[in-house]
Amino acid sequence: MLQVPFIRENKQLVINRLSVRNLDATAMIEDVINLDEERRALQTKLDAVLAESNSISKEIGILYKSGQAEKANTLKTKTSELKEESKVLNEALNTKTEALNQLLYKIPNVPHESVPKGNSEEDNEEVYTEGNIPKLHDGALPHWELAKKYDIIDFELGNKIAGAGFPVYKGKGARLQRALIAYFLDKNTAAGYTEYQLPHLVNEASGFGTGQLPDKEGQMYHVTEDNLYLIPTAEVPGTNIFRDVLLNEADLPIGITGYTPCFRREAGSYGAHVRGLNRLHQFDKVEILRVEHPTKSYQALDTMVDHVKEILNELKLPFRILRLCGGDTGFTSALTYDFEVFSTAQDRWLEISSVSNFETFQANRLKLRFKNSDGKNELAHTLNGSSLALPRVLAGILENYQTEDGIKIPEVLVPYTGFEYIN
User: Fold this and answer.
1) Vertex 379 angle, CA 377 and 385, to 5°
2) Cα angle: 210, vertex 20, 217; to 5 degrees
3) Of 151, 156, 215, 334, whose CB neighbour count within 10 A is largest?
4) Strands (E) located in 272-347
5) pLDDT of res. 267
6) pLDDT tens-digit map of 349-398
7) Distance between CA atoms of residues 109 and 183, nearest Å
8) Helical H runs in 106-170?
9) How far apart are CA 187 and CA 206, in angstroms?
10) pLDDT value at 270 more than 60
11) How far is 172 from 418, CA to CA, in rounded Å?
């Protein structure tokens, strides 16, 4: 969440940048400042009462030692009154602080100055394209038909077992899925990311730490009896490794990677655009996360973007990169780049990765700090990216690599699959 001192010192800047998200935050920002003024006033009063109480307590001790018990007993009455006053002030301070925090939880991150104003994905800026769109043979099929033809993914069986959006991968389909996971992890660890195996459920504190709560609870599966949430992405457990952690400046940067299944309710998603692997309730993803020094986080973001580019170049898939507009940028992000692969059989672009810089937004929630060169505690910057989300990468491979004789496996994946064709 945003830091109150930053809001106080940059009130108009915050309002102006949040307007890029099509959000008039004027009233909320004014309320934050007013609540903070009231909180600070209560804190000042409480500090004064406690200071007076401590001073009188010391005086009482001196009076007792000097034999002036009557005066000491008179002052004890005063300390009782001050103790009751401090209790009332402390309760009022806690109430005001909670009200301030609840308001701050509702305010999204301030977009980076490069984020364009816009309402939806139609207003995103294309900043890079690479790869040639293949010309397919007559009768080329979308991936859901290919999956049925070659018996590698069974959507109906998944529907029987769990419901729509839970496919069953079979035979070479399962092998290809496993090959992609291993390939992505190998690329990430070779780039310096440390591999982690992470929990697939998280507690409420973890959801608040990365900003999924209270913003996205409707998109997450909730295990109500234990108050745990199935993870929507490895970003949540991975970033929460650093919750309530004080690092040394020399520890930075930190990079981790991990494979997890991801679970998203995707309520209200219907239609042809979500057929097959296009939108799922359960899917596999390999994630990269970074904890960075604030002065180096945008350089790190560029490095992450280049890393995902390299993977897609090795897979030889046509792709493009979009800088998301304010209306399409996630609640916690300051700047996001989306990668999209072209689905030739569907004649459309499919999102396969988001790479984001959250600056201090998550770190403030997480209390993730480092001790800087001046010996002061400073909030770190957090970043994350999909490297990569499997379903639409798999869809792109099936559709773009299909031939009349079967589906050719990208050359870089053959050592992982052990076969060159699905036929």
Assistant:
1) 150
2) 30
3) 334
4) 282-292, 319-323, 335-343
5) 54
6) 999 999 999 999 999 999 999 999 999 999 999 999 999 999 999 999 99
7) 33
8) 143-149, 155-161
9) 28
10) no
11) 10
Cis amide linkage into residue 280, ω under 30° from 0? no
3-class state of residue 243 by DSSP: coil
Answer whether 270's CB lies under 8 Å from 236's CB.
no
What per-residue confidence (pLDDT) applies to 177?
97
List residues bridging with 321 in a β-sheet.
128, 339
And the tokens for 179? 């090959």
Predicted confidence at residue 273, as pLDDT, reads 62
Mean pLDDT of 166-191: 98
Whether 402 shows a pLDDT value over 80: the answer reads: yes
Q: What is the rounded distance in angstroms from the CA atom of residue 119 to the CA atom of residue 112? A: 16
How far CA 346 is from CA of 140, 316, 317, in Å, comes to 10, 18, 15
The SS3 call for residue 310 is helix
Torsion of CA 202, 203, 208, 213, to 10 degrees: 80
Q: Please name the amino acid found at residue 164.
A: A
DSSP lists the bridge partners of residue 126 as 322
Query: Measured at the alpha carbon of residue 244, what is the angle toward residues 100 and 248, in degrees to the nearest 5?
Result: 125
Exposed, middle or buried: residue 17 (CB in 10 Å: 0-12, 13-18, 19+)?
buried
Please give the angle made by the CA atoms of 318, 319 and 321, to the nearest 5 degrees: 165
**Whole-prediction pTM:** 0.92
Residue 155 token pair: 């959507």
- pLDDT above 60 (res 268): no
